[in-house]
Design goal:
Blueprint (H helix, E strand, L loop, with lengths): L8 H14 L4 H4 L14 H5 L5 H11 L2 H23 L1 H12 L12 H10 L4 H14 L4 H11 L5 H12 L12 H7 L43 E5 L18 E5 L8 H22 L3 E4 L5 H8 L3 E5 L5 H15 L3 E5 L2 H6 L7 H13 L4
Parallel strand pairs: 1-2, 1-4, 2-3, 4-5
The structure holds flavin-adenine dinucleotide.
Flavin-adenine dinucleotide (FAD) binds next to helix 3, helix 5, helix 8 and helix 10.
Length: about 375
């Protein structure tokens, strides 16, 4: 069966190839249309979110075949992910605010009406088209007057691509918090134009005004943490640990590490949907199989970050190498564990991909200043 939202690296590379060959050129013109089957978009977001494939691989593949100007819109969309991630790394108070608010928020959406078709699609497939996410979030915040963080939590529990940065900041943007004073509103003529299979739109209130909530987040900017791209030579027995933020570490400088032991941490959210959990387990199985073959070690599957200390002591390792998790659930769970390991004298080395090191510093303010800096770097990749 063809996986509409690839859950393994091979499937993601195949979908990328198909998209590059057949769909990339039309993307700028067709991407906003919400169609059954979503053939006009890449459907690679879940694979990208977990780095079964990387943004760099996607951009490199598309630029290997097409001129930059012909696929600029697609490249720009791909780096929206990088931008949001880089921005959240520098504004962790915004994630903390979402965590606080969503812990107490109601997560069941109202049933009936035009948006319930998308609710159903999200529940059964774990996917919603970008334009539908915008309409749905606008309906939730401005028409229903519900708390944005509760809607964001509902998305987070169901989306295969649930991502701390893209989801939190996408919701804040619709709600009118991200770009202060500017909110997104859903309008009937826009839905009718871009939604191929729309039914009645009568319940969409065309006159609704933005209900922008009070800002409760600490938006102050913190410096980016410094990480090496590759680990240094390490003495003694080295453990390598992977996690849901990067499931293709063997394609990075971590691929050259010769570890004594390898583990994969799989700590899903407690309220994650069954559809999301099933996709994630397939992706984890795929990573585990690839790493077993690449590193020549059986990969231990750990159910949570808290299991790391005892696994390390059983494996007798003196050092631990991993990709630094991004601001989000894995980083929150990792932080206290890192402290425990360091207190126990384990050397911890966290790395970050060159792509992130290069582009995150530019994600300090709005997207367009970021794009102004990113575009020359990306367009040069073609030469
Ligand atoms: C309210 C809201 C919540 C969202 N939550 C998430 C989320 O949790 N996880 C997530 O990955 N994306 C999220 N997005 C962004 C976007 O909707 C999805 O990335 C996109 O729909 C995925 O489908 P695709 O891969 O077919 O996209 P394509 O149109 O094929 O785009 C190619 C790639 O570009 C990136 N991209 C495209 N649009 C955006 C965008 N607006 N923001 C960030 N990256 C983008 C994605 O990596 C995507 O795979 C959200 C958007 C909104 C408005």
């Amino acid at each position: 069966m063809v996986d509409l939202f690839p859950s393994d690296r091979q499937g993601a590379l195949q979908r990328l190839d198909e998209f590059v060959q057949a769909e990339a050129i039309a993307y700028a013109r067709t991407r906003n249309f919400v169609e059954v089957g979503h053939a006009n978009v890449s459907r690679l977001s879940a694979a990208l979110r977990h780095r079964l494939i990387s943004e760099e691989e996607v951009v490199t593949a598309v630029l290997a075949v097409h001129r930059f100007s012909a696929v600029e819109k697609f490249v720009q969309e791909v780096v929206w992910r990088t931008y949001w991630k880089g921005w959240l790394e520098q504004h962790p108070g915004v994630w903390e605010d979402y965590v606080r608010q969503s812990a107490v928020a109601m997560t069941v959406p109202p049933s009936g009406g035009a948006m319930s078709r998308f609710t159903e699609e999200l529940r059964t497939t774990g996917y919603m088209h970008n334009h539908a996410r915008m309409w749905w979030a606008a309906w939730w915040c401005h028409q229903q007057g519900l708390p944005w963080a509760a809607g964001a939590r509902f998305f987070f529990d169901h989306l295969l691509d649930a991502d701390a940065a893209s989801n939190t900041l996408g919701w804040r943007w619709v709600a009118g918090l991200q770009t202060p004073g500017k909110a997104y509103l859903a309008r009937r003529d826009n839905l009718a134009k871009y939604w191929e299979d729309h039914g009645s739109l009568e319940d969409i209130d065309d006159h609704v005004r933005a209900r922008i909530p009070a800002e409760t987040a600490d938006r102050s900017r913190t410096s980016l943490s410094e990480y090496p791209e590759a680990p240094p030579e390490l003495e003694g027995k080295v453990a390598l640990v992977g996690h849901a933020d990067d499931l293709s570490i063997e394609t990075t400088p971590l691929g050259a590490v010769r570890p004594s032991s390898v583990a994969l941490i799989d700590q899903p959210g407690v309220t994650d949907s069954a559809v999301k959990c099933a996709w994630r387990s397939r992706a984890m199985d795929d990573a585990s199989a690839r790493w077993t073959s690449h590193y020549g070690k059986v990969v231990s599957r750990l159910p949570c970050w808290d299991a790391l200390a005892s696994w390390l002591s059983e494996s007798g390792c003196d050092a631990l190498v991993l990709m630094a998790p991004f601001v989000g659930p894995d980083a929150d769970a990792w932080r206290p564990v890192r402290q425990t390991l360091q207190d126990a004298g384990i050397r911890v080395v966290e790395c970050r991909r060159a792509w992130d090191q290069r582009l995150f510093p530019a994600a300090r303010a709005g997207f367009f200043p970021f794009w102004h800096k990113a575009k020359p770097i990306l367009s040069k990749r073609q030469q």
